[in-house]
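Regression check, NAP case 283:
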Amino acid sequence: MTLTGNAKKAGVMGWPIGHSLSPALHGYWLRHHRIDGAYVPMGVRPEHLAAALRALPVLGFAGCNLTIPHKEAALGLMDRVDPVARRIGAVNTVLVGAEGMLEGRNTDGFGFIENLRGAIAGWTGRRGPAVVIGAGGAARAILVALIDAGAPEIRLVNRTEARAAALATEIGGPIRTIVWQRRGMALREAALLVNATNRGMTGEAALDLPLDDLPQEAVVTDIVYAPLETPLLAAARRRGNPVVDGLGMLLHQARPGFAAWFGVAPSVTPALRAAVMESLARE
Ligand code: NAP
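Current build output:
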């Protein structure tokens, strides 16, 4: 669509930025809603992040998303950080407010929960124990989101135990760490299993996790979305567990930013998924 001089502007900062799916995602919504606006990829080196963020209000941007490697560094560069982003320790959505004030939010946990709610009718975090495998950046957002969704118990398993223990102490709530060697047993009576590692990604080995002890009704989700059906999801599906792929998390986390920048609350639809999957296939 042709832009006017009044076009609203947002984008995504990362380094490198070429693989980001966010321009395809927001571009779809901009076209769908016929909005006079643009969402642009911005390759920003780490040493230029502060200057790039401060340029947003100067250039008339409504805000931006942040991706690797900027999410943690941005925390200290905001004028205001929302409490969820503060607990997660990372910012993925920036809003430009009055007088150029920068507000940092984190919508990754929101995207994670909305993906489950959208895929499994009546899903609630209160159903029972959740098992989260992985203690990296993505796991932080998922842990905070599961606590806020009312999970009665969260079993955190990570290859490097010390990292899981540090995260459990920092985030608090009903998180219990379980050593890597006992990961299979951690699945007993679980209501939800989450792979928050990069295992199963194209080019990486599958997550090494025996599912024998996992109840058949437990929901299994993976935050890896390339491939869409990871070896973990395929194994869970074969034994009859409900499965939810990771692409939905990416799509849903984008909703709050789009609504704030462009003034329209967008939806995650099959057509959006298809458009983003087309971009993914081109990668
Ligand atoms: P990260 O901070 O680098 O953390 C990686 C995690 O994977 C750590 O827990 C690490 O364990 C674990 N891991 C790595 N190699 C392993 C191995 N050989 N065996 C067992 N565990 C291993 O990465 P991240 O930012 O959290 O991202 C993780 C994945 O999530 C990536 O594939 C990313 O693309 C995806 N992601 C998806 C979404 C979405 O919207 N769907 C959002 C964010 C991220 P150690 O601590 O032992 O190293």
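Comparison notes: The mean pLDDT is 97. Residues 255 and 267 are 7 Å apart (CA to CA). No diff flagged against the previous build.
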